[in-house]
Write a structure and sequence with these properties.
Length: about 550
């Protein structure tokens, strides 16, 4: 069915949606403020300011007169910070009972209102219907007819079905939601994270850092959303995770570009004045901060103490919020490495440094007790005999046991114990583990057989785990499974031994060149990683025997 629709707002997103609706066969009118841009759309079928070089549907009409706004179907692409004033000015020109489809993202400064609340307040006393359109969608890609999926949220399910039909086509898919607030908050909060992701990239902190930022940012978005009354599951969908991933990684993201330039040293004033478009995240950041305070953020514990968290700390401090940060002991660790650990006492454990951070905020509690053995369901059935885990891998070569030595270690363990399980991921780790599984009938490669929960259940049932300075060591410590830990470039005295692990399980060579780094990321100065080769497989097998008693 052909409808008459007005899109209010001639920015990139409003123009792209107007183009899409025109392509769908609807009579589509684009209201905007700039008469010159309207003329260009009508004559050259191009928005030269926001989407230069992209051809728009020839049937798309553009104009600046308020009479265009009287259609029943009105799509709002007005920036959030301008929406209240625009509605106040145009209220009398709207349809008596309009269907409003909002496509703007953000929270209003001062009131901290999402767009739905702004609309409800400005149109109080008159009937209207409201829906929110959001999701991972760059305007230019929509105009180019590249596949896009979004979510359309409304409390009226029948209305949602009707509106989805307006937009949906082979390359533009609309999904449904009734959680209007959650969809709005997802679209607003992700812009803040996009700026942070841009800063991360601008500072050259790497892909690992950005991935951590996105993951923890999504958790924060969800928590804020739940506190406001939204559904947590909404943030795992297109308007949350989907939009977050796109905006934080895509070069077409205006908010990411703001952060990128900030990280490269430009001032915010210069960036916003030269951008030529609205980056909603700039204003939304301030609004989200105020919202967090309103929701009861009493203090901030910074357990990372890195550049991006320091900037956040400064902002919190300036606003009068108590802040405490972890004392990582970087100078102590550098001295430990320079001395090769000789004459140095073990440094404070990282777990206790985390505790200290919260104590500085006034929390009173004792140091945590080491874990105790606990029964968990074993994914490999009833246990018979002695079971041992072997985890020779790490992300860093300086913490990875050499493959030829790993083969010998597996042989010794398989000959002595009833079952041996090899922990590891894909790629070369999977290849090695599966080769050992084919070679020894009592060896099991875990990758692809169990998830994290199943692996934890298994570790809790093992008699001993042989691990490098890596994740498996810490997982075993969480369930009090004895650990033989093998150390190469790093050192347990730096505070990273699994919490509660028996020191008798530590295996390391006494060499002048080690430890050579805190995290094992530096290449071996000799190129042969002799510190790892100095811990032979027979020594590992003997240490397992000591802890297992067999």
């Amino acid at each position: 069915m052909r409808h008459t629709i007005t899109v209010a707002g001639g920015g990139s997103w409003g123009t792209a949606l107007a183009h899409l609706l025109a392509v769908r066969g609807h009579r589509t009118r684009l209201w905007l403020r700039d008469a010159a841009v309207a003329e260009a759309i009508n004559t050259r079928h191009e928005n030269p300011r926001y989407l230069p070089g992209l051809a728009l549907h020839p049937d798309l009409e553009a104009g600046t007169g308020p009479e265009l706004l009287g259609t029943e179907l009105l799509l709002l692409a007005i920036p959030c910070q301008q929406l209240r004033g625009w509605l106040h000015a145009m209220r009398d020109h709207l349809h008596p009972e309009p269907v409003l489809i909002n496509a703007a993202k953000g929270l209003e400064l001062g009131t901290l209102s999402p767009c739905s609340r702004i609309v409800a307040e400005e149109l109080a006393g008159r009937p209207f219907h409201y829906a929110m359109l959001s999701g991972p969608s760059f305007a230019a890609e929509v105009v180019r007819d590249q596949p896009t999926a979004v979510v359309l949220a409304t409390a009226e399910e029948a209305l949602g079905c009707r509106l989805r039909e307006l937009f949906s086509c082979a390359t533009f898919r609309c999904y449904s939601s009734t959680d209007v607030l959650g969809v709005e908050l997802g679209g607003a909060l992700k812009n803040v994270m996009a700026i942070a992701a841009g800063v991360c990239d601008g500072l050259g902190l790497g892909h690992n850092s950005r991935a951590a930022l996105l993951t923890r940012g999504l958790a924060e978005m969800s928590r804020i959303g739940e506190a406001c009354g939204a559904q947590a599951a909404t943030f795992m969908g297109l308007s949350g995770l989907g939009d977050l991933a796109l905006t934080c990684t895509g070069d077409l993201s205006r908010n990411r570009q703001v952060g990128l330039r900030l990280g490269q040293g430009e001032s915010l004033e210069h960036i916003t004045s030269s951008l030529g478009m609205v980056a909603e995240g700039v204003k939304t950041t301030s609004a989200v901060y105020d919202l967090a305070r309103r929701l009861g953020v009493d203090a901030v514990a910074d357990v990372h103490d890195v550049l991006r968290s320091r900037a956040f700390r400064l902002s919190m401090t300036l606003h009068g919020i108590p802040v405490a940060f972890i004392h990582k002991g970087r100078a102590e660790k550098r001295r430990f490495i320079r001395c090769g650990s000789r004459g140095m006492e073990p440094l404070r454990h990282t777990v206790l440094r985390y505790c200290d951070t919260f104590r500085r905020l006034g929390f009173v509690f004792d140091d945590p007790e080491p874990a105790r053995r606990q029964e968990r369901p074993d994914p490999f059935g009833p246990k018979e005999g002695v079971w041992v885990g072997f985890a020779p891998f790490s992300a860093q070569r300086g913490k990875t046991y050499p493959e030829e030595l790993s083969r010998e270690a597996v042989r010794l363990l398989a000959e002595r114990y009833d079952r041996v399980f090899i922990h590891g991921g894909g790629g070369g780790e999977q290849r090695f583990a599966e080769e050992m599984e084919r070679t020894y009938p009592n060896v099991t490669a875990l990758f692809g057989k169990v998830g994290l929960d199943g692996e934890m259940d298994l570790i809790a049932d093992l008699d001993c785990v042989v691990s490098m300075d890596s994740l498996v060591m810490h997982l075993a410590a969480l369930v009090a499974t004895p650990v033989v830990s093998v150390w190469g470039a790093t050192h347990p005295g730096l505070g990273f031994l699994g919490y509660g692990c028996d020191p008798r399980g530590v295996l390391q060579a006494d060499m002048a060149c080690r430890p050579c780094s805190v995290f094992g990321s530096k290449p071996c100065r000799y190129g042969d990683y002799r510190c790892l080769k100095a811990v032979p497989p027979a020594m590992i097998a003997e240490r397992v025997r000591l802890l297992v008693g067999r």
